[in-house]
Amino acid sequence: MAKKISIDETYLQDTLIQLLNIPSPTGYTEAAIQFTQSKLEELGLTSGQTPKGTLVAEWPGRTNDKPRGLTAHIDTLGAMVSEIKQNGRLKLSQLGGYAWNSIEGEGCLILTSSGRSIRGSVLLTKASGHIHGEKVGTTPRDGDTMEVRIDERSLTMGETEDLGISVGDFVAFDPRVESSPSGFIRSRHLDDKAGIACLLAAAQAMIGADKKPSQRTILHISNYEEVGHGAAAGLPGDLFELVAIDMAPVGEGQTSDEFHVTICAKDKGGPYHHKLTRRLEELARSAEIPYKIDVYPFYGSDGEAYWRAGGDVRVALLGPGIDASHSYERTHVDSLRATTQLIIAYLQSP
Ligand SMILES: [Zn+2]
Prior knowledge:
Elements: H1 9-20, H2 30-42, E1 47-49, E2 55-59, E3 63-73, E4 78-84, E5 90-95, E6 107-111, E7 117-124, H3 129-132, H4 135-138, E8 146-150, H5 157-162, E9 170-173, E10 178-179, E11 184-187, H6 190-208, E12 215-222, E13 241-245, E14 248-250, E15 261-267, E16 270-271, H7 274-286, E17 291-295, H8 302-308, E18 314-323, E19 329-332, H9 333-348
Parallel strand pairs: 3-12, 3-13, 13-18, 14-18, 15-17
Antiparallel strand pairs: 1-2, 2-12, 4-5, 4-9, 6-7, 6-9, 7-8, 10-11, 11-19, 15-16, 15-18
Helix pairs in contact: 1-6, 6-9
The structure holds zinc ion (ZN).
């Protein structure tokens, strides 16, 4: 067994927390892409953006006969203003798939086309228990029964328009990042910023130890995963393998937890490439990396997006365990460490 390359866990956690605090709902990812680009630059990896805004870096390897790709997504769940109501409040259209109740009471930023960031919060239209009684509990949560209350003096449609807010503006939900001394990190959007932080920490550890990947490796930071076509483009035609780094949902009936890396064998889109999946499992086992194998019922990934777009490559999926995915999420540093270790083992493997 090769000597393990050590991971800088402070770098890993600091990068993750910085990234979590940069709003990046699908379609509005420029700042988070720029941050990631600067992190790659610090490591000496040159990257560029595709016309779609995807970040792509090419990392020369010891060989180039079977080039590899690693993809993780920077975009997160969010919303867009779909209507300014007569009472000055905002109706939302969802970006990505989540239950409306998961954002109830959350603070948000309205990112206006004029460049302003205006604070607000997402509430039930009939939110006050003193006025609406038990309806507050029984109303189904959806786009019609929920709205954004803006933290500005605005009681009419005109007053809201005067703030510079318009239909089509992006809305980002507060991540509410909190890390505990026990090693937990609780935040929205760990999906998939935890994956990106692991990818950066793996590159940092390899470059710090003066190691090259076994094959020429493409680092692909996708920006439209939550709407299904993130990695459909931006990967080179000679790619042989693609490993998507994305979160592993933790919950009832799943093997995944917050303390292992998960290798996903199958999701809604079908099985991942059997040989590549087995190889990742073998790498984890031989390097004594704590891992799980899991199957997800309601899950799709950028690996699948590339397959559906015609990518003729082997595809596998691995990632950190995330509790309460697409809600107020949580993971543990043990899972982030194991994920980073498995990425390193894969990069080094022949
Ligand atoms: Zn994801």
